[in-house]
Each structure stands twice: as structure tokens, then as C-alpha cells.
Amino acid sequence: MERDNFDEAIDEIVAFTGGDMRLALRAILIESVLLEEELRQMRAASPHANSIETNNSPQFSKPRDARDQTSSNRT
Fold first, then answer.
1. Long-range pairs for 40-48 at CB < 8 Å and ≥24 separation?
2. Is the pLDDT of residue 63 over 70?
């Protein structure tokens, strides 16, 4: 199987979390939620917001402690 950039990114995330797959998945999910929120804010601030399709991506509910976890982890 040919490795691609996604495989390399996955390896980096798993290594960063010391091989803890649950922690790796949690980190990815939290980052996804934060990026979705940033995208929503950018769309809301855009003068062309009404012309941007917003229903194409899956919606994740934000974990209760997502902000607490990521504010100390993001640099």
C-alpha cells in the first residue's frame, strides 16, 4: 500500500500522543470542531455569506470541555 500525506500526518499525531489512539482521535475531533467554528465565524463576517453553501460538511457537537482542553494545547 502506498503511503500518502494523510498516513504521515496520522503517524505524527499518534506519535505525539505517545501511541494513545483515544487521545489521538480526541485531538483530531477537537481540532475539527475548532476549525468548523472558525469557518462559521468567517462565513458570518463575509459580505457574501448568503452565497456560500454551508450544508456540505458534517456537523459535530462540541464536547463540553473542548475549549478547556484545546486552549492549553494549542500553541
1. none
2. no
Mapped onto helix, strand or coil, the DSSP state of residue 7 is helix
DSSP state of 50: G
* Three cell numbers, residue 21: 489512539
Q: Is 31 contained in some domain?
A: yes
In a domain, 51, yes or no: no
Distance of CA 68 to the CA centre of its chain: 15
Euclidean distance between CA atoms 59 and 31, whole angstroms = 13
Tell me the residue range of the domain where 21 lies: 5-46+57-73
Residue located via cell numbers 482542553: 69
Domain total of the chain: 1
Cα–Cα distance, 66 to 69 (Å, whole number):
5
Claim: this prediction has a pTM higher than 0.85: no
